[in-house]
Write a structure and sequence with these properties.
Radius of gyration: 21 Å
Strand content: 25-35%
Largest sheet: 7 strands, parallel
Number of strands: 17
Number of helices: 9
Strand order of the largest sheet: 7-11-6-1-4-5-12
Helix content: 25-40%
Bound molecules: flavin-adenine dinucleotide
Order of helices and strands: EEEHEHEHEHEEEEEEEHEHEHEHEH
Distance between the termini: 50 Å
Length: 323
């Protein structure tokens, strides 16, 4: 495979580059086959933030700055990225399989007449790597390669699966600032009102403590939150817990919720319905706590504790505090 000029579309959240951007650079290195690697950050004042990409091994960095890129909107970002592509002529584009990546990548693929391979969790081989993606809610895996050597390729990668390269603080460079012409927006974001939840971002957390209907009430989540605090973990939930109004739907993990792949996943008081497994079965280590020894969650758990969560979770928290 020839060297391919590759662009990584980095993503900014709450004033920081998301980890998936660094993971995308690692994937892009494999796909570029030694071709030029360009990091792109779009936003309002993102020049200094964009410079961080050098530490992960990109050759050039472009900050696309415009007041209309302060918040993500499909139209504005699509227009901005297409203007970058027009100038840079990338052969490969890599971005995160986040809500933004899922929204913008098919639109970019149509405009570029590019192949799109989405939700990639691993790449095999250095020459023309094969991309692996889960299908049927994680029950099977598909291996894909673009059909033709020529023609552009867009790849989205699932957060927390591809390992980001080592950060090299000494690698720096000059960020090129590019202005774009954004017109005729059909929608603009006036203001983003964030819930004051704080804590760790569920979709990028290394450790998740998830509760199900077994927690029995909103108060029942308190011991799980305490365990999460000790571990620096994010709290998640099954749909059963969300439907019962024990917690907010933003915590839902599964087929119709968030897809997560932490290093460590606590499944507490949840049965392990197939729709829940679709969102978490790729977690590296799964610990299940359930009072029913026949609960299906034990079939995929690496460690299982049979017992009442209201006894076990506080004990676990105390033990971990002592470590
Ligand atoms: P339950 O199945 O009721 O399980 C509760 C568990 O808690 C039981 O195993 C019980 O033994 C245990 N328990 C009870 N008390 C205690 C205690 N004191 N100590 C320890 N254990 C205890 N679900 C999702 O999670 N995510 C999705 O994205 C999702 N999408 C769906 C999409 C569709 C189209 C459909 C049809 C369903 C979807 N569901 C989803 C719902 C899914 O089918 C299940 O209904 C749901 O996951 C069940 O939630 P649960 O495991 O919390 O509840």
């Amino acid at each position: 495979m020839s060297a391919k000029k590759t662009i990584v579309l980095a993503e900014v959240k709450n004033g920081e580059l998301r980890n998936v951007s660094f993971e995308a650079i690692a994937a892009a290195k494999q796909l570029s086959n030694g071709g030029e690697l360009v990091g792109v950050v779009a936003g309002e004042s993102v020049q200094s933030l964009a410079g961080e990409l050098f530490a992960y091994g990109v050759d050039r960095v472009i900050a696309v700055e415009d007041a209309q890129l302060k918040h993500y909107t499909t139209d504005a970002y699509k227009q901005a990225y297409l203007q970058v592509f027009d100038k840079e002529k990338p052969e490969v584009v890599v971005l995160g399989h986040t809500s933004i990546g899922k929204d913008v990548s098919p639109r970019l693929a149509v405009k570029l007449d590019a192949a799109l391979i989405s939700d990639v969790i691993a790449l095999e081989g250095d020459e023309a790597p094969i991309m692996i993606r889960p299908i049927y809610s994680g029950k099977a895996f598909e291996k894909k390669q673009p059909a033709a050597e020529d023609g552009a390729l867009i790849v989205t990668i699932r957060p927390n699966n591809i390992v980001a390269g080592e950060k090299d603080e000494s690698a720096t460079g000059e960020v090129e600032v590019m202005s774009v012409d954004i017109t005729d927006l059909r929608a603009v974001v006036k203001e983003v009102v964030q819930k004051a939840t704080g804590g760790v971002d569920l979709s990028e957390a290394n450790v998740i403590v998830a509760g199900g209907r077994g927690v029995k009430s909103a108060d029942g989540f308190k011991p799980l939150q305490e365990l999460a605090d000790v571990l620096g973990a994010a709290v998640g939930a099954s749909r059963g817990a969300c439907d019962a109004e024990y917690c907010d739907y933003s915590l839902q993990i599964g087929q119709t919720g968030k897809v997560v792949t932490p290093d460590l996943y606590f499944a507490i008081g949840l049965s392990g319905a197939i729709q829940h497994l679709a969102g978490m079965s790729n977690s590296k280590v799964i610990v299940a706590i359930n009072k029913d020894p026949e609960a299906p969650i034990f079939e995929i758990a690496d460690y299982g504790i049979v017992g009442d969560l209201f006894d076990i979770v506080p004990l676990l928290t105390e033990e971990l505090k002592a470590v």
